[in-house]
Amino acid sequence: MAQPNANNEKSWGDTDESTYKYIEGLVKKHGVGKKLYDEMKVERDKWRKEAINIAFIGQARQGKSSLINANIGRKVAKVRATGVCTTDIRSFAHPKNPNIIMWDVPGVDAVKFPRDQYFDKIGYNVNNYDFFLIVTKDIFSSDAKYVADLVQENNKRFYLVRTHIDDTIEKQLDDKDDDEFLSEEDIVADVRKNIQEELETFAFDTNKFKVYLVNNKNSLEFDFPKLKEDICRDSVSELQQEALLLTIGGYGRQMIDLKYSLFKKRLTKAALASAAGGAVPIPGVSATVDIGILIEETLTYFEGFGLSKESIESLEELNEVPNGTIEIALTNKLYNEYRLLYVIREGAPRALSSWDSVKSAALSIASTSGRYILSQLSLVATSETVETGAKWLLPIVGSVVAAGISYLVTSYQLGCFLDQLKIIAEFANSYLSDVERHRITAFEANSDED
Questions:
Q1: Is residue 38 assigned to a domain?
Q2: How far is CA 56 from CA 18, 65, 144, 236, 367, in A?
Q3: Which residue segment(s) compose the domain that 97 sits in?
Q4: pLDDT (tens digit, 9 = 90+) per residue, 190-233?
Q5: Confidence bin at 322 (pLDDT 50/70/90)
Q6: Is the four-CA dihedral 381, 385, 388, 393 of positive or negative sign?
Q7: Strand pairing of 131-136 and 97-106?
């Protein structure tokens, strides 16, 4: 339920002194009203305009197209049939965010893409790309080392990706002698050892750069989750990281923590916008909230954590879980333990489509889901937690008491939602098989040792 509880008393109270000053400065500059509302809306949506270009570099038939599809979550890049070779540069905008573009870039070729003209030939200066994935299904050659050196000279990040690890495992298991004991773990360890020897041959710094073993058919297996996490973590700015986390997503313990930290930073902006917009009165309290913003931000958390219906369906398909298994378990958990989140996930998306403005939101609040949400917010607004918090907020917003309480209600409620959704994300993630969790843990342990 949404009302204050002992497990979440400090959801809004974690706000530090710098945040107080941030709020105070904005209120002094704009007051509480439309200007503040508009500025906070722009701040919350800045990530949507962040342009990010990711280059997938390698020879034909190395798994680049499948890797792009796996990162996007849809089959947007046509996988070339055996024997079909292309030296074209192809681009694929992410369907959820057209400003994030993934590029299928040919590798070094003696005829069409010679080393000394490589970046000129592919039509882009190295600085036009933000990340480089050097892709192979076999060994990393001296050409890969050449490209990696150029990328490093320009202070850009590159990742060495070895695709089709699943095919390698299957082939070696099929080829082994009947009396030979060979486990999947043995094969993976042997592949890692061979790759390290290859890299050392070409003077790669194996202590600095890891090779990610991936199964292009399943973005939850082997090192794929770690690859996504590292790309997001290596972002050059918070805005870039926000765009990547909310677009390419990913699962796994560390990824959930990254997203949680991001959403904590967004929370204040959403609460300020809600306080400035208002329009929907909280029953029994002299305060209003912009329920449209509260629900929109909560749905962003759902989507960001990969808990939307579409994301769960994709998770089940990628992880070869029977259709509906995770979705049914997740829906039951929400209904039985987090009823307000259940209402928002099930009913709010349809209602929100008609909430084009604060005024229309006020009209739509007569819906069953809207009345239930407001009844829960009234419990928050009259709680001791919010009343105590109002003491530090009143000097900042002056006599605008209603706006101060509105900020605290939205901030507290979003904090509750965020903590609860982190638990739910971990619950959904627990459906990964023991083998997959072991692979992720083994990779992280290997990284820590180095």
A1: no
A2: 40, 9, 12, 19, 48
A3: 48-244+439-449
A4: 999 998 888 888 888 777 778 999 988 777 788 988 999 999 99
A5: confident
A6: negative
A7: unpaired
Q: What is the pLDDT of residues 147-177, one digit of tens each?
A: 888 888 878 888 999 999 999 998 888 887 7
| Residues contacting 192, CB < 8 A, separation 6+ | 211, 213, 446
The amino acid sitting at 322 is: P
CA atoms within 13 A on the CB side of 23: 26
Backbone angles phi, psi at 58, to 5 degrees: 170, 170
Pick from 323, 299, 303: nearest CA to 311 = 303
Q: Does one domain contain both 12 and 80?
A: no
- Residue 328's nearest CA partner among 312, 347, 311 is 312
- Under 8 Å between Cβ of 225 and 440: yes
The structure tokens 């042997």 sit at 190
Percent of the chain residues past pLDDT 70, beyond the cut: 75
- The average confidence (pLDDT) of the chain is 78
249: left (phi > 0), else alpha (psi -120 to 50), else beta? Answer: left
Residue type, 413: Q
Spatial distance between the Cα atoms of 22 and 275, rounded to a whole number of angstroms: 15
Query: Nearest CA to 70 among 117, 35, 102, 112?
Result: 102
The answer as to whether 52 is a domain residue is: yes
CA distance readout (Å), 229 to 24, 232, 283, 440: 35, 5, 43, 11
Residue 121, both tokens? 């030939």
- Counting the structural domains of the chain, the total is 2
Question: In which element (H, E) is residue 162 found?
Answer: strand 157-162
Q: Which amino acid is at 409?
A: V
408 contacts: CB under 8 Å, gap ≥ 6: 12, 271, 386, 389, 390, 393
In a domain, 42, yes or no: no
* SS3 call for 398: coil
- For 365-407, how does the pLDDT look when each residue is reduced to its tens digit (9 = 90+)? 556 667 778 788 888 877 766 666 555 555 555 444 456 777 8
Which residues, listed in sequence order, are joined to residue 158 by a DSSP beta bridge? 132
Same domain? For 174 and 157 the reply is: yes
The length of the chain in residues reads 450
CA distances 150 to 120, 140, 154, 166, Å, are: 12, 16, 7, 31
User: In which element (H, E) is residue 57 found?
Assistant: strand 52-58
pTM for the whole structure: 0.79
Q: What is the dihedral of CA 334, 337, 341, 347, to 10 degrees?
A: 60
